[in-house]
Amino acid sequence: MVSIAEYYAGKNVLITGATGFMGKVLVEKLLRSCPEVKALYLLVRPKAGQSMQQRVSDMMKCKLFDRVREDNPDFHQKIIPISSELIQPGLAISPEDVERLTACINIVFHCAATIRFDEPLKHALQLNVIATQKLLSLAQQMHHLEAFIHISTAYANCNRRHIDEVIYPPPVEPKKLIESLEWMDDGIVRDITPRLIGTRPNTYTYTKALAEYVVQQEQDKLNIGIIRPSIVGASWQEPFPGWIDNFNGPSGVFIAAGKGILRTMRANNDAVADLIPVDVVINLTLAAGWYTAVHRPKNAVVYNCTTGGINPFHWGEIEHHVMSSFKRNPLEQAFRRPNANITSNYLINQYWILVSHKFPALIYDLFLRLSGQKPQMMRIFNRLHKAIGLLEYFSSQDWEWNSENMTMLMNQLTPEDRKTFNFDVRQLNWPEYIENYCIGTKKYVLNEDMSDIPAARQHLRKLRNIRYTFNTLLVVFIWRVFIARSQMARNIWYFVVSLCFKFLSYFRASSTITN
Ligand SMILES: CCCCCCCCCCCCCCCCCC(=O)SCCNC(=O)CCNC(=O)[C@H](O)C(C)(C)COP(=O)(O)OP(=O)(O)OC[C@H]1O[C@@H](n2cnc3c(N)ncnc32)[C@H](O)[C@@H]1OP(=O)(O)O
Ligand SMILES: NC(=O)C1=CN([C@@H]2O[C@H](COP(=O)(O)OP(=O)(O)OC[C@H]3O[C@@H](n4cnc5c(N)ncnc54)[C@H](OP(=O)(O)O)[C@@H]3O)[C@@H](O)[C@H]2O)C=CC1
């Protein structure tokens, strides 16, 4: 049987969402580990005043592509950007491009989606469901298509505790929902959204579940694989450890904690933190593309791409390792010393939000106002609270995913492919991974230089001294206020002072006797 790289040799691959976090890693890995691939067609839209060509050429300059650039400086010749806005009719692909794609594409990887948790339902539906339907229609016109790989999420069915590698009945028939939302104005849709999504926490997981069903409907006509990653984090090994380029999911939480801004969050210490490195997901995705095309299974195969059932790690452990990593490798210009704690207790969390978030923010903003600057800390905290409020659902409970198909796929690979497209998470050393993840947020998200670590440590020492001074002044201030106003507090104060004095005299006396 052909190896994975042999299979992709000479193939034309279509990728949506290639400018996103996972899409970029997919493009890089295909170019690096399957160097004989013929061409990668990327569906990209112009954005923020940049043409799609400009966006793709900027993407290829990014550090992620350093290793590919070394191996093959002309790799960009294999990349063919195709202008496409997925929420437009016909995916806004020109008729000439449609003709070109239908004539040559062999494999489709559909990564594009809105992953925002606060996306209005209509928009989430347009992109995650309707665009998927349109892409499936386009795929059916492709004369040489061998596999259609759809990226879903392990949380599409998060309303269940145990999740098998099957497609569950959708919460509503997508066609009916699409028809009804078409005539409703945005206000009505907003009002009925909580009723529609039911026990799911957001429109993202709801529309991803609908998309899976839509994809499954085409299993008689296409060879389909569905990948369900859990919480995708920085790379484990490839192209180098710790690569990450965004604030999504845990990355934003780690950064906020490393900067000393986030001090408390609701999470269950003992719940499994189902993080999965991005390179693992991409290796599995490419292997699933190969398997789907070579074996052509009759029904869509679902791969739960998770770590919890195989090599579990818990939020409490994550907290410990993140904090110790940021103490060893501090971020620049931290607001306070990194010291975040997680708790599953609502009231305790609210207390710490008040004491450790709102109170310091108020003081800092007061300081900024007094020094003639614009206050900003309270605004930052409000945004942070909104973001973590949306994540807490995922950090406060755990799920059990069956990942038999991941094991089955691994067993199908040659020993060589198992190394090149490694998705064996049993080998993942969590403390080392979390350390590299934290360093990755520093280097690649915040663009901080590792050579500035001594200065960052010095800054933390300064913050520690400020804290000691502040606490001392606070104690003195409180006692002064009490002593001035209350006889009882004064008595307590004299009692404590005389106790300390007696203890010191006793200590001095006993040390004189022993001498
Ligand atoms: C040490 C303690 C350890 C404790 C560990 C506990 C960790 C728990 C983590 C649980 C994670 C669970 C994730 C579950 C994932 C499900 C998997 C998936 O399928 S789907 C994949 C997962 N999908 C997601 O994760 C999507 C979640 N994100 C969203 O839905 C939205 O970004 C939003 C609603 C949070 C904010 O919307 P909006 O107000 O419109 O703002 P914008 O979006 O425009 O961004 C504004 C600014 O904020 C920045 N920033 C962004 N996120 C965070 C963050 N988390 N934090 C901090 N900052 C963040 C952002 O970069 C930007 O900065 P700047 O450019 O202005 O400087
Ligand atoms: N990140 C995670 O933790 C997880 C992600 N997933 C799934 O993985 C896939 C990729 O996620 P990720 O890479 O993190 O997401 P990103 O948000 O980083 O990337 C999304 C991609 O979709 C593209 N896109 C969005 N809207 C449109 C549009 N209207 N037209 C054309 N392209 C569009 C974006 O293009 P542009 O650059 O133009 O905005 C971008 O390339 C998604 O399907 C997601 O559901 C699953 C589990 C976890």
From TrEMBL:
<dbReference type="InterPro" id="IPR026055">
    <property type="entry name" value="FAR"/>
</dbReference>
<dbReference type="GO" id="GO:0005778">
    <property type="term" value="C:peroxisomal membrane"/>
</dbReference>
<dbReference type="Pfam" id="PF07993">
    <property type="entry name" value="NAD_binding_4"/>
</dbReference>
<comment type="similarity">
    <text>Belongs to the fatty acyl-CoA reductase family.</text>
</comment>
<dbReference type="InterPro" id="IPR013120">
    <property type="entry name" value="FAR_NAD-bd"/>
</dbReference>
<comment type="function">
    <text>Catalyzes the reduction of saturated and unsaturated C16 or C18 fatty acyl-CoA to fatty alcohols. It plays an essential role in the production of ether lipids/plasmalogens which synthesis requires fatty alcohols. In parallel, it is also required for wax monoesters production since fatty alcohols also constitute a substrate for their synthesis.</text>
</comment>
<feature type="transmembrane region" description="Helical">
    <location>
        <begin position="492"/>
        <end position="509"/>
    </location>
</feature>
<dbReference type="GO" id="GO:0080019">
    <property type="term" value="F:alcohol-forming very long-chain fatty acyl-CoA reductase activity"/>
</dbReference>
<protein>
    <recommendedName>
        <fullName>Fatty acyl-CoA reductase</fullName>
        <ecNumber>1.2.1.84</ecNumber>
    </recommendedName>
</protein>
<feature type="domain" description="Fatty acyl-CoA reductase C-terminal">
    <location>
        <begin position="357"/>
        <end position="448"/>
    </location>
</feature>
<feature type="domain" description="Thioester reductase (TE)">
    <location>
        <begin position="15"/>
        <end position="284"/>
    </location>
</feature>
<dbReference type="GO" id="GO:0008610">
    <property type="term" value="P:lipid biosynthetic process"/>
</dbReference>
<dbReference type="GO" id="GO:0035336">
    <property type="term" value="P:long-chain fatty-acyl-CoA metabolic process"/>
</dbReference>
<dbReference type="GO" id="GO:0102965">
    <property type="term" value="F:alcohol-forming long-chain fatty acyl-CoA reductase activity"/>
</dbReference>
<keyword id="KW-0812">Transmembrane</keyword>
<keyword id="KW-0560">Oxidoreductase</keyword>
<dbReference type="InterPro" id="IPR033640">
    <property type="entry name" value="FAR_C"/>
</dbReference>
<keyword id="KW-0472">Membrane</keyword>
<dbReference type="Pfam" id="PF03015">
    <property type="entry name" value="Sterile"/>
</dbReference>
<keyword id="KW-0521">NADP</keyword>
<keyword id="KW-0444">Lipid biosynthesis</keyword>
<keyword id="KW-0443">Lipid metabolism</keyword>
<feature type="transmembrane region" description="Helical">
    <location>
        <begin position="468"/>
        <end position="486"/>
    </location>
</feature>
<comment type="function">
    <text>Catalyzes the reduction of fatty acyl-CoA to fatty alcohols.</text>
</comment>
<dbReference type="InterPro" id="IPR036291">
    <property type="entry name" value="NAD(P)-bd_dom_sf"/>
</dbReference>
<keyword id="KW-0576">Peroxisome</keyword>
<keyword id="KW-1133">Transmembrane helix</keyword>
